[in-house]
Design goal:
Layout (H helix, E strand, L loop, with lengths): L15 H11 L2 H21 L3 H10 L8 H10 L11 H7 L1 H9 L4 H8 L10 H12 L8 H10 L1 H18 L6 H10 L8
Helix pairs in contact: 1-2, 2-3, 2-8, 3-7, 3-8, 6-7, 7-8, 8-10, 9-10, 10-11
Bound molecules: 2'-deoxyguanosine-5'-diphosphate and fe (iii) ion (FE) (2 copies).
The site of one fe (iii) ion (FE) has 5 residues, from helix 2.
Amino acid sequence: MTEEITYTHHYIPMTRDELVDHLREALKDKRFHHVLRVEQTAIQLAQANGVDIEKASIAGLCHDYAKQRPDADFIAEIKKRGLNPDLLNYNNAIWHGVVGAELIKDELGIWDEDILNAVRHHTTGAAIMSPLEQVVYMADYIEPGRDFPEVVRAREITKHNLAAGVAYQTKQTLQYLIERNSPVYPKTLETYNAWVPAYQKEI
Ligand code: DGI
Ligand code: FE
Ligand code: FE
C-alpha cells in the first residue's frame, strides 16, 4: 500500500506533492520510480524502528536527487565549497550523495542535519549513523525493485535487525568493489570497520 504523508514539521518548505514534482523534473523515469520505492521502504523501516516517518519520506525521496547531474557540476561544487579535495579522485557514485546533500540544502531548502546526513551517507555509510541514516541506507539497498541475489537475505536480516542489515550491506558492497578492482572511498572502509565485526554473529 502506498503511503502519502502530509508534511507538518517544516523540515522542507513545500508539500510532499511539490517535492515529488521536483524529483520528477530532476530525474529520468526509472530513477524517479526508484526514489518513490525507496521512500515507501524507508517509511516501513521507520515505522518498525521508531524513526520519524516524515523525515524518512523526505530523505527517501531526496537521496538520489543529484544522481543525474553532470560531473562538471560536482567538480565545481567541490571546489567552490572547499569540500575534501580527495573527493575529486572519485566519481558520480560517491558525489551524488556527499555533494548532493549540499545541493539539496540550497535548491530544496532542507536544513535538517539528520536528513542531510541520510543523503550524504546513503552510498558509503558512516562509522556512526543515526537510526534515520540506517533506514535510508537500507531502504536504498532492499527496495522492491532490487533483484540481485543477496537482496533476499538483506531483506530478512533488516526486518529482524536494522543495524545488522547495515553490516550485511556494507560487507557485500566492499566485496563487490574489491571483486571489480574499484577504488574504495575511505568512508566505506570506516563503515566496514565500525559495523561488520560488531554484527558478525547476525550476518
Ligand atoms: O544511487 P543508487 O544506484 O540507488 O545506489 P548507491 O548510491 O548506493 O550506489 C551507487 C554506486 O556506488 C554503486 O554502484 C556502488 C558504488 N559504491 C559504493 N561504495 C563505493 C562505491 N564506489 C566506489 N568507487 N567506492 C566506494 O567506496
Ligand atoms: Fe544513490
Ligand atoms: Fe538510490
